[in-house]
Amino acid sequence: MYDPTSTYRTDQIVTATPVGQVVLLLQGAIRFGRRHIEALEQGDRQAAHTASIRCQAIVAGLQEVLDLRAGPIAAQLDAIYDFVLRRLVEGNLRADPRPTEEAIGLLRDLLEAWTEVAARQRAGELVGRQELAAVGGRAVGPRALPA
User: What fold is seen in the domain 25-144?
Assistant: First the structure.
């Protein structure tokens, strides 16, 4: 079945800059984290689980493309992603929204920072080598994109 929304999101990711891809993926992770919480509030454990797994997959994908040789920014992002993943797993296993809310807060902070980097890049400012290397300096790819 053709899903125009999924096609649009895939096109957005594929055509975005690496920094733009990180922004889009963080937005997706936050969206699925919120869905996890909403489903828990509605008592739908299966929908909550599905949303949490999708959020976890996005964060794991972001962590996977980090180039840890890039320097301290990449190492710090790796630690943040690791912590966020642990909180998401805990929230999912315990069916407790609090760890997921904490993870979403950190993801929002990251989104704000990467949105600023993307704005600087669009404005033609030089973006630091460490910032680009931290996201792999290449396309993140649609494999981490939620359908």
Answer: Four Helix Bundle (Hemerythrin (Met), subunit A) (1.20.120)
